[in-house]
What we know:
Layout: H1 5-19, H2 21-53, H3 58-106, H4 109-113, H5 115-129, H6 134-162, H7 164-189, H8 192-210, H9 212-220, H10 224-276, H11 282-323, E1 342-349, E2 359-366, E3 371-376, H12 382-389, E4 397-402, E5 405-406, H13 412-416, E6 419-422, H14 433-438, H15 446-455, H16 482-499, E7 504-508, H17 516-529, E8 534-538, E9 550-555, E10 558-563, H18 565-569, H19 574-585
Parallel strand pairs: 3-8, 3-9, 6-7, 7-8
Antiparallel strand pairs: 1-2, 1-4, 4-5, 9-10
Helix pairs in contact: 1-2, 1-3, 1-11, 2-3, 2-6, 2-11, 3-5, 5-11, 6-7, 6-11, 7-10, 7-11, 8-10, 10-11, 15-16
Amino acid sequence: MRKNILNNIWYVLLKTWIYEKRVILIIVLQAIIGIVVPLAGATLPALVVNGISNDMCYSIILKIAIVLGLLLICNITMTYISSIYETYLLNNKMGFLSELFRKKMEVDYAYIESPEGQIKYENALMSVVNDNTGISGMISLIGPIMGNLLGLIANIFILSKFNWSIVIVLIVTAVIHLFIAAKIRLKQNALREPVSESTKKINYLFNYVTDATSIREIKIFSMQAWLQNIIDHIIQMRIGIADKSANYNFYLSLSDGFMLVIRDAFAYFVIIHAIFINQIEVWEFILYFGLIACVSSYFTELSNNIASLGQKNMEIITYREFVERECSDTGIELDKNEEIKIELKDVSFKFDEDGPYILKNINLTLCNNEKIALVGKNGAGKSTLVKIICGLYKPTKGKVLINGIDLEEIKLSNYQKLLATAFQDTYILPMSIAENIAFREATSNVEEIKRCLKMAGLDGEFLDETKPLTKMLFPDGIVPSGGQEQKIILARVAFKLIYGNAQLLILDEPTAAMDAISEKNFYEKYISLAKNKSCILISHRLKSTSFCDSIIVMENGKIIEKGTHESLMNEDTHYKSMYQIQSSYYQ
C-alpha cells in the first residue's frame, strides 16, 4: 500500500478532526498568519515612505494602523499557539497511539512475532511518538505549507500587475529547485532502511544495558569493554549515515542559494530600472522589493517543507501499512457449551517462505476429556504446535479441524474463549491482583478469584485481591517473584477454566520455577479441575505428565512416538530412555 501525499494529508486531517479538533484550528491559524505577516511586513515600510513623501493623510494613517493591528493580532495568536500547541498535539498523538495499540492486539500473532511485523510496528510507533517525524511532523508542516502557497498566490498576483517577467523567472527558478530537491530527497529516502536498522540495534542494546538483569550479567561476565566496542561501532555507522544525509542537505541548500541569486538579481534589476525611468515611485519600489523578498522566502520555505513532507509521507505510509493491515475476525461461532474435538491433519509449519520447517506432517487428534502430554527436547516444536492449536499460528500446510470444521472458517476470538492457556512466558499487568486474574470481571467475582489464588498455591498478602502489583505505578504495590508471577498466571487460567467455561486446558511449562514434586502435584490438581474437559500439558519433567491418557514424543518437528506412559515404558522407546535418565537424578 503506497498512498500519495494528498491522500495521506487528508487521512491525517480526518483522524486529527476525530482525536483533537483544536489542532485543525491551529493549522488554519498558521496558514492565515503565514499569509498576513510577510505581506504586512512588506507593505508597512512602503506605506510609511508613501506617507512621508506625499504627506501623511488620514487614509495612509488608517492603513498603517490596520497593518500594525494585524501584526499585533498575529503576534498574540502565535504566542498563544506556541503555549498550547504541544498540549493539543499530545492529545492528538494519544488518539493515534490508541489506534496503533488496538491494531497490535488485533493483528495476527504470527505477524507480530515475525521480524517483519516487529520492524513495521516499531516504525509505526516512531511515526507517532516523535514530534518532528511522522504524524506530528506532517501536522506541523500542513499549516506553513498552506500559508506558503496562499502567500505565493497573493504576492505573485500583486507582482504580476507590475511586471510578468519577474513572475515567470521566479516560477521557473522555483520549479528547477523543486526538481533538484526531489532528486536529492530520493537519495535521502534510500537511507531510511539503514537508519531504521541501526536505530533498532541501538535501541536493543540500550534496553539491554539498562535492564537490571542484564547489568548483573554484564558485571559477572566482564562484558563492559566488549559491549562498548559494539555500541561504538553501531553509533559510528549511524553517524556515517547521518553525514550522508547532511551532505545531501548541503547540496539542497547550495541549489536553493544559486536559484535565489538568479531570481533576486533579475527581479531587483527590473525594479531598479523601473524607478530610474520613473515608472514607479519610491514607496512602490520598497513595496515590490519587499514582495520579491517574500516570494523568495516563500519559495525557499515551500521547497524545504515539501521535501520534508515527502519524508513525513513515507513515515505515514509505514504507520498506515500497520494499522490498515487486514485482520478480520469473522466466521462460524462455536457453541460455548459444546464439547470440542481437535484434529491436526498433515500439519506443517515454517515462519518464512524460504526458512526451515518447524513442524512436519503432524497428525494428532485430541478428543473431549482426553489428557495428552507433549514431551521432547528444547526446539522439538512443542510450543509451536500448541500455538497452532490455539490459532496463534496458521499451518503452512495441512489443516486444524475443530469438531470437523476447518479452524480458518471459525471466528477465532470465539474459539479462543474456549481455551484456558498458560505459556512459558509470564506477563503481569501493573494493576490489582483481581484484575490480573479476571480483568473486567474483577469486581463481580471476588470469592471466585480468592479460590483460584489459593488453588494456584498463593497465600499471605497475595490473597488480598485489591492489592496492586509492582511498585512502578503503585507505591503500596507488591513485587511478585518469578514463581509467584507464574502462580498468578495459573490462577488466571483456573478462573477461566472454572468460571469462564473454557473447554481446553493448555499448560506450556508454566511451572518452570517450581521444583519437580511441586510441579507434579500442581499438574495433578489442575487435571482434576479439568476432569470433564480436554487438556494438553508440556513439561520437560516426564514424571509430571506420566498420568496423562496419551504421551506424544516430539523430535525435530515430528511426532516420533505416541502412547500411554506404561506402553512407552514397556518398549525400547526414546521416551523410556529420557524417563530413565531423568529418574536417576531424583534417586
